[in-house]
Design goal:
Helix content: over 70%
Number of helices: 9
Strand content: under 5%
Order of helices and strands: HHHHHHHHH
Structural class: mainly alpha
Number of domains: 2
């Protein structure tokens, strides 16, 4: 007569009972059940926490590692500040050029068109400088052609605006070019600390070198994280600068034409008054 023997784990038969009791406890006393669940989950959470993250790099790193982190943080703040600031200024300039083109394309006298411009806008500065050049031209009418005189003045004003539009872009270019090397310096320093740790302890176990090597990798990642937005922002803002300056040059060409017509009209009116 043969006998059958069970090869299952002794506690397997009690598993449904434990699950049933846990469900009853959750229904009767949810707070106690949650505390029991937290007590079970807490050790797992603690074991999964990362002891080699950015916080540990700052807490356990030396003054060189902390200085490198601060430099990267300052470079990131500067790059994002200039990206946002230049984007806002370019947006404002584009809006001013559109308003100026609309004002000069509308009907009305010359004075009304000039007064419709915003007082502190870039287009208003160009117009006021061209008007001042037109007022000074009668004193040198025989030496300089009026069209060439106004063209030189407008080109000079646009060149000054172009120089101001380039401010801050050099900072982005510098950050994009140097941030990877700053991160690389932190990487080299972290590897150096790892080698020192191996030499002092006499063993190359993973728990001895994980911290310095993790610090080195974090420095590399931070250097790239700072450099990539700066490079992308620089290229994006340079392109927007070209578009904005092209619009300004178009407005300047229209201003040059209308101002020459206004000067010719003024001279004709003056000649008629003299003849009368």
């Amino acid at each position: 007569m043969s006998r059958s023997f069970s090869t299952s784990h002794p506690g397997a038969a009690g598993l449904p009972v434990l699950l049933l009791l846990s469900g009853l406890l959750l229904l009767l006393d949810p707070a106690q059940a949650q505390s029991g669940t937290a007590a079970i989950v807490a050790p797992v959470t603690e074991s999964l926490s990362n002891p080699y993250g950015l916080r540990s790099v700052w807490a356990q790193g030396d003054w060189v590692a902390r200085a490198t982190l601060l430099i990267l943080a300052m470079m990131s703040l500067l790059s994002w500040y200039f990206i946002v600031a230049k984007w806002l200024s370019q947006r404002q300039l584009t809006a001013q050029v559109l308003a100026a083109n609309k004002a000069f394309a509308g009907a009305g006298s010359w004075q009304q068109r000039v007064q419709s411009l915003e007082p502190d806008s870039a287009c208003s500065v160009i117009v006021q400088s061209a008007l001042e050049a037109a007022r000074r031209h009668p004193g040198m009418a025989r030496q300089v052609d009026p069209g060439e005189w106004l063209s030189q003045n407008i080109v000079h004003s646009v060149a000054g605006l172009q120089m101001r539009s380039q401010e801050g872009l050099s900072v982005l270019a510098t950050v994009g070019a140097t941030a990877p090397f700053v991160g690389l310096f932190g990487t080299v320093w972290g590897i150096y600390n790892a080698l020192v740790t191996i030499g002092v302890s006499g063993q190359a176990s993973i728990d001895k070198v994980a911290g310095p090597v993790g610090e080195a990798l974090i420095m590399t990642a931070l250097g790239l994280a700072v450099a990539v937005p700066a490079v992308l922002g620089y290229n994006w803002l340079v392109r927007r600068n070209r578009v904005s300056l092209h619009a300004v040059k178009g407005f300047s060409s229209e201003l040059h034409t209308q101002l020459l017509l206004e000067m010719d009209r003024t001279q004709q009116q003056t000649s008629v008054r003299r003849d009368a």
